[in-house]
TrEMBL record:
Source organism: Spirochaeta lutea
UniProt xrefs under InterPro entries: HAD-like_sf, HAD-SF_hydro_IA, HAD_sf, Pyr-5-nucltdase
Protein name as catalogued: Pyrimidine 5'-nucleotidase
Pfam families, per the entry: Hydrolase
Family matches, as NCBIfam families: HAD-SF-IA-v3, Pyr-5-nucltdase
Length: 213
């Protein structure tokens, strides 16, 4: 098949879930929700899970159901300023990405400043033509269909010739639903029920791409 673009998620995709970064972001989100709603962190964690299922992101849930207006404050507080403790340098990653013979972009529900920190830490910003963050999509990110369509429109590529790689099953399914090719990063083998190609790490991507029909 012909592939026009590779579209990568950021967190838990360009570096392993086992890094602990996403767990730290989730911890900060739960603490923020607890403060904002005036509830315990245990109840905040339960509320976040429900809100995420209904709206796709914690931010969107807080905006639509709880009137959050301080979105910049939220994004700044839940994303660590220092990513080095979570993400080790990976000199081999640049050459690995450059070896994939397709143009590449990043599509993340994180804010641009977090994406820049991560990409700079990994030394791979130059590997990507674009970085599409949550503000590009007016804070309505994955898995909303419009978010995928905006990114595809900006790249001027059809969904059916674009491969999207993400670690969240609902986000991969969302891309498949708009006609794209979804690939799941499933580091710990938790998501056997998703009908999509899956790999345990990014390093397995070349073999998967050559086997696509």
């Amino acid at each position: 098949m012909t592939i026009d673009y590779l579209l990568f998620d950021l967190d838990n995709t360009l570096y392993p879930e086992s890094s602990g970064m996403q767990q730290e972001i989730h911890r900060r989100m739960t603490a923020y929700v607890a403060r904002y709603l005036g509830i315990s962190e245990e109840k905040a964690a339960e509320a976040r899970r429900s809100g995420f299922l209904n709206h796709g992101t914690t931010l969107r849930w807080l905006q639509l159901e709880h009137g959050l207006r301080t979105t910049v404050e939220f994004l700044e507080q839940v994303h660590p300023e220092d990513v080095e403790p979570f993400i080790p340098e990976n000199p081999a990653l640049t050459s690995f990405l450059d070896s994939l013979p397709y143009p590449k972009a990043v599509f993340t529900n994180s804010p641009h400043f977090h994406a820049q920190r991560v990409l700079e830490r990994l030394g791979i910003r130059s590997c990507f033509t674009h970085v599409f963050d949550i503000t590009f999509n007016d804070l309505e990110g994955k898995p909303h269909p419009a978010s995928y369509r905006r990114v595809l429109s900006a790249l001027n590529v059809p969904a059916e010739k674009t491969v999207f790689i993400d670690d969240a099953p609902s986000y991969v399914q969302g891309f498949i639903d708009v006609g794209g090719i979804g690939v799941l990063i499933d580091e710990f083998g938790r998501y056997g029920d998703l009908n999509a190609p899956r790999i345990p790490s990014l390093w397995e991507l070349p073999n998967l791409l050559t086997g696509l029909p």
